[in-house]
Amino acid sequence: MPKEKLKRYQQQLLDLLVDGGWELVSIDEAAEGWFYGHWTLRSVQEKWGHELIISFFEAPNYWWGITASTRRPRGRDDESVFARMELGSGRYDEAVTAFVREIDDHRRSIP
Question: What is the pTM of this model?
Answer without folding.
Answer: 0.86
